[in-house]
Amino acid sequence: LARGAGGQDLAGRHVVVSAGGTREPLDPVRFLGNRSSGKQGWALAATAAARGARVTLLAANVELPDPAGVDVVRVSTALELREAARKAVADADAVVMAAAVADFRPAEYATGKIKKVDGAEPAPVVLVRNPDILAELSAERAFAGQLVVGFAAETDDVLANGRAKLARKGCDLLVVNEVGDGKAFGRDTNAATIMAADGGETVVAHGPKDVLADAVWDEVAARLG
Ligand code: CTP
Ligand code: CA
């Protein structure tokens, strides 16, 4: 793995990373999901462990082998991720929400498989909002100085959207990716701007996801003091 200048600069720290994408069940065989591969979250967990941190990886529907030396907690839905995150962050120095959390879930779960009915159109699927886990973790920090980091995939005016989202979420850092045209999703490379609530902006050129992960930990380590 590529290393930040700090070597073991996260030794003695506990960091929590969420990865993958939540699935919101509709019935026993169907769900609403998204295309997040989990690779960026995996890279964040592996690089933090290599820098000496104790790492808890909250993995939502990711089919990748567990990174070495990392505690992996598997979850599926946004509500499960929220519960796992609340537990894991109690003593965490930093939490990075790299998971793609479904904004909505079906209002009702059908305990039996939804069947076609002859001659009838299907009933519409009613959705309700999921909690905003990142905003909650930011507002209800386990202790003063706990760092909260979000990710955002944006199109159009990427930087302006990122700034507005950083303010809305109340987190310390927001890693803003430009998406569209096959950028980011499922790929091994990423480019991003790491925006800080204190006004800082660090541009990370297009490259392997470990390089972006190390750049995120550089920003975290600099603020942990
Ligand atoms: N996030 C979260 N809980 C949600 C939705 C998003 O914790 N219910 C987190 C993601 O893990 C990510 C960040 O918030 O770190 C930004 O996600 P994004 O989908 O870009 O933000 P939204 O507020 O959902 O905005 P949008 O309407 O653009 O999807
Ligand atoms: Ca969203």
Automatic annotation (TrEMBL):
Comment on bound cofactor: Binds 1 FMN per subunit.
Cofactor entry: Mg(2+); FMN
Organism of this sequence: Kitasatospora paranensis
The keyword Iron-sulfur appears for this protein: no
Protein name: Coenzyme A biosynthesis bifunctional protein CoaBC
E.C. designation(s): 4.1.1.36, 6.3.2.5
Positions with a binding annotation for CTP: D103, K113, P131, D132, I133, L134, F151, K165, K169
Domain DNA/pantothenate metabolism flavoprotein C-terminal: 10-222
Known catalytic reactions: (R)-4'-phosphopantothenate + L-cysteine + CTP = N-[(R)-4-phosphopantothenoyl]-L-cysteine + CMP + diphosphate + H(+); N-[(R)-4-phosphopantothenoyl]-L-cysteine + H(+) = (R)-4'-phosphopantetheine + CO2
A molecular function (GO) term: phosphopantothenoylcysteine decarboxylase activity
Region called Phosphopantothenate--cysteine ligase, residue ranges: 15-225
Keyword Isomerase: no
Taxon lineage: Bacteria, Bacillati, Actinomycetota, Actinomycetes, Kitasatosporales
Pathway where it operates: Cofactor biosynthesis; coenzyme A biosynthesis; CoA from (R)-pantothenate: step 2/5; Cofactor biosynthesis; coenzyme A biosynthesis; CoA from (R)-pantothenate: step 3/5
Family per record: In the N-terminal section; belongs to the HFCD (homo-oligomeric flavin containing Cys decarboxylase) superfamily. In the C-terminal section; belongs to the PPC synthetase family.
Keywords (A to Z) from UniProt: Decarboxylase, Flavoprotein, FMN, Ligase, Lyase, Magnesium, Metal-binding, Multifunctional enzyme
Protein's job: Catalyzes two steps in the biosynthesis of coenzyme A. In the first step cysteine is conjugated to 4'-phosphopantothenate to form 4-phosphopantothenoylcysteine, in the latter compound is decarboxylated to form 4'-phosphopantotheine. Catalyzes two sequential steps in the biosynthesis of coenzyme A. In the first step cysteine is conjugated to 4'-phosphopantothenate to form 4-phosphopantothenoylcysteine. In the second step the latter compound is decarboxylated to form 4'-phosphopantotheine.
Source taxon at top rank: Bacteria
Gene expressing this chain: coaBC
